[in-house]
């Protein structure tokens, strides 16, 4: 093979590898940056409550200005984490995301328990959760493919007058290591 | 020395070509890829485990923490009904009816995918905030200048797009996402 052909072939094979690797890594890097930023401000396995999104909010792209967000950066490496979030009308959802951005779980106010709460136990794939399950048989069980993830509660804000009610719901929400 | 030059130049060229082509593809696509209904587009793989390499990358760039379609469907429009890019120097009329969802909103975003500093006190219209006619229809003016009635503020001098969020969409959205009733986007005037 002539040297220029070998060079061209090397570049093409290398470019394909770089292309795939960069595209694969991008969501993981961006999610990791978001989790580090949010975790740095609010801590791990505990909710932090974001102010209503305005043009000054730059932590996550395309925020909804109509939603009241509560975010919990998850680390289930040391054991399962329990999430409990009371819901409000006209719409609330509790969702869990894996570190590669996949939305692995979502439940909304329509399907909340009779007490108006969405309960979730988040564990690492393969983890033994029988003990965790025994503490709350009605909770949803969600498995993450790795130790890290993120839980997000969205509550629709219907008016400024609703702030006090939504803040009370946020304060009574729980994201904590199971058994703590 | 010749060998080193061979491998070093090949490595640099591969890096530039590989990373550049990835950036080009991700920049030329948005979450509006996939299915189109008028000027609005959606990608039903958003947030799902079935999402491909490019969808995941685009979600991270343009819609991090987006919910999967079982919970929410997102449509985005970057052009008006004539196909022209949306500009903050023009006034548009959105004409439609309640979106087919348990709760919905339409929000305007700047070219960086963040909310724009328009000087107004709101960034969206929603099922809760919109004023409707007796027959359930609505009209919204999208403009940098304050408008009477329903107004979605944007910023003069820059492009923008709009995202319609369908929280708990009706079954028809899943059956025929290309036929989802979404507001027409009609350009009225430009500066």
Keywords:
heterodimer, A: 180 residues, alpha+beta, 4-stranded mixed β-sheet, 3 helices, 9 strands, B: 191 residues, 4-stranded antiparallel β-sheet, 10 strands, 30% strand, globular
Task: Walk me through what this model shows.
The complex is a heterodimer of chains A (180) and B (191). Chain A is an alpha+beta fold and 180 residues long. Chain A is built from three helices and nine strands. Chain B is 22% helix and 30% strand. Chain B is built from three helices and ten strands, in the order αββαβββββββαβ. Chain B has helices spanning 2-28, 53-62, 171-175, and strands at residues 35-37, 40-42, 72-77, 90-97, 101-109, 124-126, 137-143, 151-153, 161-169, 184-190. In chain B, the strands form three sheets. Chain B has a four-stranded antiparallel sheet. In chain B, β1 and β2 form a beta hairpin. At the A-B interface, α1, β4, β5 and β8 of A face α1, α2, β5 and β9 of B.
Beta-strand proportion of chain B: 25-35%
- Count interface residues per chain for the largest interface: A-B, 52 and 58 residues
Distance between the termini of chain A: 66 Å
Indicate the low-confidence ranges of chain B by residue numbers.
none
* Rg of chain A, alpha carbons: 20 Å
Task: Write the SSE topology.
The complex is a heterodimer of chains A (180) and B (191).
Chain A: H1 3-42, E1 47-49, E2 67-75, E3 81-86, E4 92-98, E5 103-108, E6 117-124, H2 130-135, E7 140-144, E8 148-156, H3 163-171, E9 174-177
Parallel strand pairs in A: 6-7
Antiparallel strand pairs in A: 1-2, 2-8, 3-6, 3-9, 4-5, 4-8
Chain B: H1 2-28, E1 35-37, E2 40-42, H2 53-62, E3 72-77, E4 90-97, E5 101-109, E6 124-126, E7 137-143, E8 151-153, E9 161-169, H3 171-175, E10 184-190
């Amino acid at each position: 093979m002539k040297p220029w052909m070998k060079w061209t072939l090397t570049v093409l094979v290398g470019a394909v590898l770089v292309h795939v690797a960069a595209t694969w890594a991008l969501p993981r890097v961006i999610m990791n940056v978001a989790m580090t930023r949010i975790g740095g401000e609010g801590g791990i396995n505990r909710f932090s409550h974001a102010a209503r999104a305005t043009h000054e909010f730059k932590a996550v792209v395309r925020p909804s200005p109509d939603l009241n967000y509560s975010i919990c950066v998850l680390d289930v490496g040391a054991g399962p984490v329990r999430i409990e979030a009371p819901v409000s009308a006209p719409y609330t959802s509790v969702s869990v995301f894996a570190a590669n951005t996949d939305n692995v779980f979502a439940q909304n106010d329509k399907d909340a328990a009779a007490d108006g709460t969405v309960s979730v136990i988040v564990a690492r794939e393969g983890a033994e959760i029988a003990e965790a399950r025994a503490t709350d048989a009605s909770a949803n069980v969600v498995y993450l493919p790795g130790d890290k993830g993120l839980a997000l509660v969205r509550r629709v804000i219907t008016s400024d007058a609703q702030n006090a009610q939504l803040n009370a719901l946020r304060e009574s929400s729980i994201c904590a290591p199971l058994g703590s | 020395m010749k060998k080193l030059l061979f491998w070093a130049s090949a490595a640099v060229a591969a890096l530039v070509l590989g990373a550049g082509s990835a950036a080009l593809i991700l920049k030329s696509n948005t979450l509006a890829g996939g299915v189109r209904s008028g000027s609005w587009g959606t990608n039903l793989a958003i947030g799902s485990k079935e999402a491909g390499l490019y969808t995941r990358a685009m979600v991270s760039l343009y819609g991090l923490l987006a919910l999967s379609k079982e919970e929410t469907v997102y449509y985005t429009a970057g052009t008006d009904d004539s196909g022209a890019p949306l500009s903050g120097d023009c006034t548009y009329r959105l004409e439609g009816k309640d979106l087919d969802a348990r709760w919905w909103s339409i929000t305007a975003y700047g070219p960086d995918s963040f909310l724009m500093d328009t000087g107004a006190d709101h960034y969206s219209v929603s099922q809760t905030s919109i004023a409707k006619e007796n027959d359930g229809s609505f009209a919204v003016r999208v403009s940098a200048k304050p408008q009477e009635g329903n107004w979605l503020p944007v910023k003069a001098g820059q492009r923008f797009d709009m995202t319609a969020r369908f929280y708990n969409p009706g079954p028809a959205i899943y059956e025929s996402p290309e036929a989802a009733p979404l507001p027409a986007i009609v350009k009225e005037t430009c500066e």
